[in-house]
Amino acid sequence: MKKVLFVATVVKTHIMEFHIPYLKMFKEMGWETAVAARNDYESPAACVIPYCDMYYDIPFERNPLKLDNLKAYKRLKKVIDEGEYNIIHCHTPVGAMLTRLSAKQARKRGTRVFYTAHGFHFYKGSPTINWLLYYPVEKWLSRYTDVFITINKEDYERAKTFKGGKVYYVPGVGIDLNKFRTTEDLHKEKRNRLCSEFNIPNDAIILLSVGEVNKNKNHRVVIEALGKIKCRTIYYIICGRGPLIEEYKELSKQLNIEEQVILAGYRTDVADFYKAADVFVFPSFREGLPVSVMEAMASGLPVIATRIRGSSDIVKEKVNGILLEPLDVDGFGKAIIEMCDPKKRKQIFDANEAKASEFNLPKILNEYQKIYGEGEKYE
Question: Once rounded to an integer, what is the mean pLDDT over residues 236-248?
Fold first, then answer.
């Protein structure tokens, strides 16, 4: 029986979020599946991975300089050396770095190493320190990579300059369109429920952001824009956890819009938020290819995003959204006002439903299956 190993830094917020359909695909092809990642569940017993035959809890740390990563390397190398895998597919910076170092001997025995880069830390406009630290490491590790998969076009062009294996461009890991698609009746139903839960007026315009509440996600620019607009019928919901929640609550209070800014925390029903909202806002400084933007598009939402790598690949100016510079508070304010027009939103709704079909999970799975086939001859 052929064997595949998926490696990522954490289980709950990476393997479970993105890779279950891929494990299922391999199981249906008759492969033995394994996962190596840190158990990041609050209750370790909750870590149950579907379609996974073997799970290895590896103590990866996101900070590559943490000493625990030396333990992680030793444990992962043992798993790889003893596992005799046909394919190892690694993800996330630390997980991918340690995997490619651990698999050097395994590759000599025929194991093929696949690496999906979910957004290089070095990119146009990134700090010089990122180029000095991350670029040479990634370029060096590419020689231990048989198949390189990138999820945005800038990274694809960059990866083609490395001296590694084949390079592919695949737009993301795929999304289940049926989970996010909506209708007018469903929109009304979910909206009424959301307005009731958060005490939002029925005639309000609801802006939505989904993602960790941290500096990179840059929700501050939207809050500041709302403070300048001074329109009491526009509400902003942020779904996600993170270190800046209290700071944003205080900022909203200072701007006298605390009732309009709703920090909803982590939600398992985020698909309902997409279906209830009017506009999706994605003000990040840096991304690979934002899954939340694709999910919003599947719900037909117009997108106000930043002109960055990844977002620029899928948001086309004045076609399915608006692109702005990350610190353009006035620009965000004008864009929000523009998207208050229901005719404008309806026009973009149709365009985004069509665009979202490019990220349909079965389509992306098919592309990955072809790539796996080129890296490993199926019996």
Answer: 96
The 10s digit of each residue's pLDDT in 184-216 is 999 999 999 999 999 999 899 999 999 999 999
Q: List the domain range (segments joined by +) for residue 95.
A: 3-174+361-375
The pLDDT of residue 377 is above 50: no
Q: Domain containing 100 — which CATH number?
A: 3.40.50.2000
Instruction: Assess whether 308 and 332 both reside in one domain.
Output: yes
pLDDT tens for residues 255-279?
999 999 999 999 999 999 999 999 9
Q: Are 103 and 148 in the same domain? A: yes
Q: How far apart are CA 94 and CA 89, in angstroms?
A: 13
Q: Contact at 8 Å (CB) between 266 and 240?
A: yes
CA distance 289 to 326: 16
Phi, psi at residue 274, to the nearest 5°? -60, -45
350 beta partners: none
Number of domains in the chain: 2
Q: Which residue's entry shows tokens 């990563």?
A: 69
**Do 284 and 246 share a domain, yes or no?**
yes
| Helix (H) or strand (E) segment spanning residue 168 | strand 166-169
